[in-house]
Write a structure and sequence with these properties.
Elements: E1 10-15, H1 19-36, E2 40-45, H2 48-53, E3 60-64, H3 72-81, E4 87-92, H4 98-103, E5 108-111, H5 116-129, E6 135-140, E7 143-148, E8 154-158, E9 161-165, E10 170-173, H6 177-183, E11 189-193, E12 196-199, E13 203-207, E14 210-213, E15 218-220, H7 226-239
Parallel strand pairs: 1-2, 1-3, 3-4, 4-5
Antiparallel strand pairs: 6-7, 8-9, 8-12, 9-10, 11-12, 13-14, 14-15
């Protein structure tokens, strides 16, 4: 599966009581980092108790099922209660425990001993599902806010600055549109006009050179970019919605 290169740090946690598993996966992650052009941060936990005490922000957790004292299934139930927002990939040599792992919302399974190709495929899937989850910094009345990209309806140029519309509140940024396109997930956002960037997940209809959003806001798509926008929208609609 192809995933976009050049994203920000990808934070991977591993919870396993065996050091040799940590060492093997760390080596695999170093290779994954190099081949995908990303920076992978690796956070280690050697027990479920250490994991549950942690306040580290992860993108994905590699969680062993078979651990002493608190096993991976029990830890998964606690993570569910805590409403963690990262994906959990279960590491296990026991297929008979897959059903239990499904109940804790496991995203993928990677059997032990860990196969590099299976691990990489699972990580690719996580990165594909991370679309729109990253937060961006915006301002309102001089106060900064962190909002998820997915909450943005569209961004409008306002001289050298920009206005960010979410439907519930409007924000401002000193960044121009070109800087926003470097920060936003290009699978989700498209600059459809010299004055607008649109969130394709919020598009309700396209009629000639007007895009209607789910909020009923209407923004322009330039005649020059219309065909390119429609192709990008179809790609988003079929692969990522």
């Amino acid at each position: 599966m192809a995933v976009r290169k050049g994203t920000k740090d990808f934070v991977v946690g591993i919870c396993d009581d065996e050091m040799h598993i940590h060492d093997a996966i760390k080596q695999m992650l170093n290779e994954y980092s190099a081949s995908n052009g990303i920076t992978v941060r690796f956070i280690q936990f050697f027990s479920a108790a250490d994991l549950l005490k942690s306040e580290d922000r992860l993108d994905v957790l590699l969680l062993d099922i078979e651990m002493p004292e608190i096993d991976g299934i029990e830890a998964g139930y606690e993570l569910q209660k805590n409403k963690v927002d990262y994906k959990v990939i279960m590491l296990t040599a026991r297929e008979d425990r897959y059903r239990e792992a499904f109940r804790i919302g496991a995203f993928r399974f990677v059997p032990k001993p860990v196969d590099k190709k299976e691990l990489y495929a699972a990580l690719d899937d996580v990165r594909e599902h991370m679309i729109s989850s990253k937060e961006v910094t915006v301002y309102r009345d001089g106060v900064s806010y962190q909002i998820p990209q997915e909450n943005i309806l569209y961004i409008e140029a306002n001289k050298s600055a920009t206005l960010i519309f979410t439907g519930k509140a409007d924000f401002r940024s000193e960044k121009p549109l070109s800087s926003w396109m470097e920060e936003l997930d290009e699978r989700l956002f498209f600059q459809c006009h010299k004055s607008y960037i649109v969130n394709m997940s919020k598009v309700e209809d396209v009629d000639k050179n007007v895009i209607t959003l789910v909020s009923n806001d209407k923004i322009l798509v330039s005649r020059r970019l219309r065909a390119t926008f429609l192709r990008a929208f179809v790609t988003y609609d079929t692969k990522h919605r």
